[in-house]
UniProtKB/TrEMBL annotation, chain A:
UniProt similarity note: Belongs to the sorting nexin family.
Subcellular location: Cell projection, Lamellipodium; Early endosome membrane; Golgi apparatus, trans-Golgi network membrane
Major localization listed first in the record, in broad terms: other
Basic and acidic residues composition-biased segments: 314-324
Listed GO CC annotations: cytosol; early endosome membrane; Golgi apparatus; lamellipodium
Biased composition (Acidic residues): 19-38
InterPro entries named among the record's database cross-references: AH/BAR_dom_sf, PX_dom, PX_dom_sf, Sorting_nexin_N, Vps5_C
The protein's name in its UniProt record: Sorting nexin-1
Amino acid composition bias (Low complexity), ranges on this chain: 325-345
Gene Ontology molecular-function annotations: phosphatidylinositol binding
GO biological process, any: intracellular protein transport
Source species: Hucho hucho
TrEMBL record, chain B:
PX domain span: 20-167
Source organism per UniProt: Hucho hucho (huchen)
Name of the protein described by the UniProt record: Sorting nexin
Family: Belongs to the sorting nexin family.
Domain of life: Eukaryota
Ranges in a coiled coil: none
Keyword set, alphabetical order: Protein transport, Transport
Function of the protein: Involved in several stages of intracellular trafficking.
Top-level taxonomy: Eukaryota, Metazoa, Chordata, Craniata, Vertebrata
Length: 737, 400
């Protein structure tokens, strides 16, 4: 339905042909888009739009009406859309010269790709499922007419879409083992309307199956097993899924929608993602009708459903994204609707716990030099205290070296930056500082370096575990728990290259900024500008605080020098009282030297380090904005590609080159799926970035307040000491006579 | 840049380093000063009841070179060999400050308006401080002379105070400077020679060793204090810049953190002023004191040198007289010369003893005054700082 909404917009760009397949891709795209809103916003005008541009639309409308009358409202809705879809697909076929041989090849491609890459096909399938199941019966009839009108062999067009449907359907269905199925026997619904509808589709499916001998090969190869299932109960699955939620009403919506947040990295989760939206839509529809069963209500019902979902699903989404992300991506193909259902809940709970009372304390202590010479390194004791059940015990300790921390960052960054997460960066590698330590100079600066790094690593790790999503990452747990961490071999290169990468990213994003990106969401534009301005200011501030540290150290040294000099002057002074006062002054200055020294340390540790941390973190923030931009770019590129493919097809149509038409059609299907996918990615990444930035800002505010107050308190103490020293000196000065 | 000495600051500086007995018969001060392109014009104001002045109260405009001329005339006057000649005021040096101001003008484009204004204010304040210090140094010189029982009667001094036109004193040319340089080389070589001679008088022997050591140490302390104060000023400048950057950060948005930044910026803006004040007061009460006594101890050393020179001359004259008597040749001439040397030496010794005792008294009093003031100022600033910090931390903690 949202698809239709999209369709309207896409139609504004002049489609070469009215019969052009545009509606179809768009519909697919919409169906997949995460946001319930989109999906349902379009719901109002699907039929109109269809009518406008597709010839068979009128037929559909007429045909759907009877259908709806016969069946219940929801079904009708479901059908209405798919119906049109089903039409458009056939339309393509009609226009094509139905040479079965040519079409078979693209089919294979289509099917293969989804399997290997992401899931363009499954997505379509989802969409088609209802169509095929519900409408196949009437559809066939309907299709026949336009088909015949269009003068090409009617049966063949039918075969193609149906074949698609059949092929695809199993895939998606297999994937979503439909936990609901077992839970809810969907007897009512099936008794009422669907049974009718399904009776036919089944037949048609099988019929087509036989008919499409051409497709036998691909079908068998890829889907022979699923097919069987599909033939037995494909329609049931869809509806059962839908039914289960019906019983559970709104509850179900949440968990289900959760699933589609899962990482699209593996095919299976992808499918889960795609299936669910459709399931959700059906759910909502059914839920309404289930109770009422009234025919007239159809428009209202839909509107209501729309509202409900648009409110629910995005919200749930976000919540889920926080929690579900890592574990979902980690759990392999076995992820299923049923499996993932309980998960979000526990994760959510964890999430809340973390927010409420953070039951995980990490400290890094005992920096220790291991080895000698240039191969020496510092090892740190990483102690964890926790009550979180995800850990094996309540307290544990591991030893880690600096490169392990870098390795952890690389792992986390690789996994999570892609999705728009702000992954806290570790402190930079310092060749200077480390060389000093390696050389074994036990002087002040190397001790300071070690302490500074220890503290920085501690803050880094605390930021990681404080991040509710990152905490769930198995690599984090491994880092904290595992005794024999495999040495991250290439961190040497990583640490250097990693930061180069970050710099490149930054410049990258800069160049991209200049390119364009007509930002649809002002929030991001403003935030990015804010982040960049802040970055600039923090860098400036950092330089200044560093300079203050430098000057304060210099002041300390010079005060020390002056103290010695005054002591000497005092010793040569031949007035006893003055001599005494001068040596007292020397003592005061000596203490001041110490005081300045301490103050310099607190300038550095409380203030400069805080700024350095946030300069690094802002780098990560920018990286996540950048990631969003990349996702957007990918989506745009895909859209452009799709446009090209359509133009190609249009040209082929004009040129009347049917032999290449199937290829073009398949390309379009493929790119449509990609566009949908990428748009969804973009929406998802955008949502993540937004959430992450808000979270980051909250933490930043807290960190800054805490640290700066701490810093001010150190200044305060300095002043108190100062007062003490001078108060002690004053009588000495007065005693000079 | 034109500016006047504010009376209040003037007070701060007045007789800052030396404890002078005030004498109503002759009071000198610098009532005004103008800084022109490369020179400073001091208005020297005199109040006197002495009969050799035409009026009781008058003012003249003098430049640094005229102060130097006056000082040199004292040094060159044999009559004053037995006195510690008040050290000449240092040359006004605004070059560094002017250079900075110029650089600031060049860098105007690369700074925000606030930064520029702030920097400019800072530099102007710095310039003004140097200016006031210069004025104070010149005034101290005149006050010292006016308070000196002998030098105050000096004719040149009176001309300096009264003659209401240019003294047409010119700066030394290159040749004269070279001459001065050689004179100094000879003098210091001679000084080493003279210093090697064991003094017959324990007092002077003691003073000699004391002053040699003291001078070196006060020199060291003076340069060390300068360094210390310089880094203190740099730190204060850093805090200032930190405050303005925090301000920029704070004004970017109106979130809680931004308000927080603004408050901290406000605090730093205040504490940096105090910090700068601390540095300035240390400069005034400590560095300037040490610098003055660096020059004053040099003047005392010069007195000892002159006495030592006279002693050597006297001893040589004695030897020459012995020789002449032995040879019975030019005895009268040698006797005269010996008598002159003896007189000179005795005259110098007589006044030098008192001068050195006075020097010590003045020194102890000046150190006492300055150290007490320093401690009081340090306390005042530290307390001010503490109060600011306490109230700010209180407010910030209340916020969070």
């Amino acid at each position: 339905m949202a698809l239709l909404y999209m369709a309207t917009s896409s139609e504004r760009s002049p489609p070469p042909f009215p019969e052009d397949l545009e509606p179809e891709p768009d519909e697919v795209g919409d169906q997949d888009s995460d946001d319930g809103e989109d999906i349902f916003l379009g719901a109002d005008n699907p039929l109109e739009i269809k009518m406008d541009h597709s010839l068979p639309a009128s037929d559909i409308a007429s045909s759907t009406k009877p259908l709806s009358e016969a069946s219940s409202a929801p079904v009708m809705d479901i059908l209405s859309e798919p119906a049109s879809e089903a039409f458009s697909a056939p339309m393509m076929n009609l226009l094509m010269e139905p040479a079965s041989e040519t079409s078979s090849a693209p089919m294979v491609d289509l099917l293969m790709e989804p399997a290997s890459e992401t899931s363009s096909a499954p997505m379509m399938n989802l969409f088609m499922e209802p169509a095929s199941e519900a409408s196949s019966g009437p559809m066939v009839d309907l299709l026949m007419d336009p088909a015949s009108d269009d003068l090409k062999e009617p049966p063949k067009p039918d075969i193609n879409p149906l074949a698609d449907i059949i092929n695809d359907a199993p895939l998606s269905e297999v994937k979503t083992p439909v936990a609901a199925m077992t839970q809810e026997p969907p007897s009512d619904l099936f008794d009422d309307e669907p049974s009718e509808l399904f009776a036919e589709p089944r037949q048609s499916n099988t019929a087509k199956q036989q008919q499409t001998s051409i497709f036998d090969e691909p079908d068998e190869d890829l889907f022979s097993e699923p097919l069987g299932e599909a033939l037995k109960k494909p329609q049931n699955d869809v509806f059962k899924e839908a039914l289960a939620p019906v019983a559970k009403a709104s509850n179900v919506c949440g968990p289900l929608s959760d699933n589609y947040n899962e990482d699209p990295t593996d095919i299976f989760t992808e499918e889960a993602i795609t299936t669910l939206p459709s399931a959700v839509s059906t759910v909502s529809v059914n839920s309404k009708t289930n109770g009422v069963h009234s025919d007239e209500e159809e428009p209202d019902i839909f509107a209501e459903a729309t509202v409900e979902l648009s409110l629910d699903s995005p919200r749930n989404d976000r919540k889920k994204k926080e929690a579900a992300k890592p574990s979902a991506s980690a759990s392999a193909p076995s992820v299923s609707a049923s499996a993932s259902k309980p998960q979000p809940k526990t994760l959510e709970e964890l999430d809340e716990e973390i927010e409420d009372k953070f039951e995980l304390n990490i400290s890094i202590t005992n920096p220790e030099k291991v080895g000698d010479g240039m191969n020496a390194y510092m090892a740190y004791k990483v102690s964890t205290q926790t009550t979180l059940p995800m850990f094996r015990s309540k307290t544990f300790t591991v030893r880690r070296r600096f490169s392990d921390f870098l390795g952890l960052y690389e792992k986390l960054s690789d996994k999570h930056t892609l999705n728009g997460y702000i992954v806290p960066p570790p402190p930079e590698k310092s060749i200077m500082g480390m060389t000093k330590v390696k050389v074994g100079k036990e002087d002040n600066s190397s001790a300071e370096f070690v302490e500074r790094r220890r503290a920085a690593l501690e803050r880094y790790l605390q930021r990681v575990v404080f991040h509710p999503s990152l905490l769930q990452d198995p690599d984090v747990r491994e880092f904290l728990e595992r005794d024999d961490m495999p040495r991250a071999h290439n961190t040497q290169a990583l640490s250097g290259a990693g930061f180069l990468k970050m710099i490149n990213r930054a410049t990258d994003s800069l160049s991209k900024m200049t390119i364009k990106m007509n930002e649809s969401d002002v929030w991001f534009e403003e935030k990015l500008q804010e982040v960049e301005a802040e970055d600039q200011q923090l860098r400036k501030l950092h330089i200044m605080v560093d300079s203050l540290v430098g000057h304060r150290k210099e002041l300390s040294v010079n005060t020390g020098g002056f103290a010695k000099s005054v002591a000497m002057l005092g010793s040569s002074e031949d007035n006893t009282a003055l001599s005494r006062a001068l040596s007292q002054l020397a003592e005061v200055e000596d203490k001041m030297e110490q005081l300045h020294q301490e103050q310099a340390a607190s300038d550095s540790f409380c203030f400069a380090e805080l700024l350095a941390d946030y300069i690094r973190l802002l780098g990560s923030v920018r990286a996540s904005f950048d990631q969003r931009m990349k996702t957007w770019q990918r989506w745009q590129d895909a859209q452009n590609m799709l446009q090209k493919k359509r133009e190609t097809e249009a040209k082929l149509l004009w040129a009347n080159k049917p032999d290449k038409l199937q290829q073009a059609k398949d390309d379009i299907t493929e790119w449509e799926a990609k566009v949908t996918q990428y748009e969804r990615d973009f929406d998802r990444v955008s949502a993540t970035v937004r959430k992450e930035v808000l979270r980051f800002e909250k933490e930043k505010a807290r960190d800054f307040k805490k640290q700066i107050i701490k810093y001010l308190e150190s200044l305060l103490q300095s002043q108190q000491q100062l007062i003490k020293y001078w108060e002690a000196f004053l009588p000495e000065a007065k005693a000079i006579a | 840049v034109r500016s006047c000495v504010e009376p209040q600051i003037e007070e701060d500086y007045q007789a800052v380093n030396v404890d002078l007995q005030t004498d109503a018969t002759l009071q000198v001060d610098i009532s005004d000063a103008l800084s022109e392109r490369d020179k400073v014009k001091f208005t020297v104001h005199t109040k006197s009841t002495l009969p050799n002045f035409k009026q009781n109260e008058f003012s003249v405009v003098r430049q640094h070179e005229e102060f130097i001329w006056l000082h040199d005339s004292f040094v060159e006057n044999e009559e004053y060999a037995g006195y510690i000649i008040p050290p000449a005021p240092p040359r006004p040096d605004f070059d560094a400050s002017r250079e900075k101001l110029q650089k600031l003008g060049e860098g105007e484009g690369s700074m925000t308006k606030e930064e520029f204004t702030k920097m400019k204010q800072e530099l102007e304040a710095e310039y003004l401080a140097i200016f006031k210090k210069t004025v104070a140094m010149h005034e101290v010189f005149l006050c010292r002379v006016a308070a000196h029982p002998v030098l105050r009667k000096d004719m040149n001094f009176h001309v300096f105070l009264e003659y209401n036109q240019d003294l047409s004193v010119r700066g030394k040319n290159k040749r004269e400077k070279m001459e001065d340089f050689f004179k100094n080389v000879v003098k210091s070589a001679d000084g080493v020679l003279v210093a090697g001679v064991k003094d017959v008088d324990d007092f002077f022997e003691h003073e000699k060793t004391f002053l040699l050591e003291y001078h070196n140490r006060v020199k060291d302390a003076s340069s060390k204090s300068d360094r210390m104060i310089r880094s203190h000023k740099s730190a204060a400048d850093d805090i200032n810049r930190i405050a303005s950057t925090l301000y920029t950060l704070g004004t970017q948005d109106s979130t809680d953190v931004c308000k927080f930044f603004l408050k901290v910026s406000e605090l730093f803006e205040k504490t940096r002023k105090i910090e700068a004040r601390v540095a300035a007061d240390e400069d005034l009460k400590l560095a300037d004191l040490l610098k003055y006594y660096l020059r004053e101890s040099q003047a005392a050393k010069d007195l000892l040198y002159r006495r030592g020179r006279a002693l050597v001359d006297y001893e040589n004259a004695n030897k020459a007289l012995d020789k002449a008597r032995a040879k019975n040749k030019d005895v009268l001439q040698a006797e005269t010369s010996q008598q002159v040397c003896c007189q000179k030496f005795e005259k110098i010794s007589e006044s030098a003893k008192q001068e050195l005792i006075d020097f010590k008294t003045r020194r102890v009093a000046a150190f006492r005054k300055n150290l007490v003031e320093l401690a009081e100022l340090e306390l005042k600033h530290a307390k001010g700082n503490l109060q600011l910090l306490q109230s700010c931390v209180g407010v910030l903690k209340g916020d969070t």
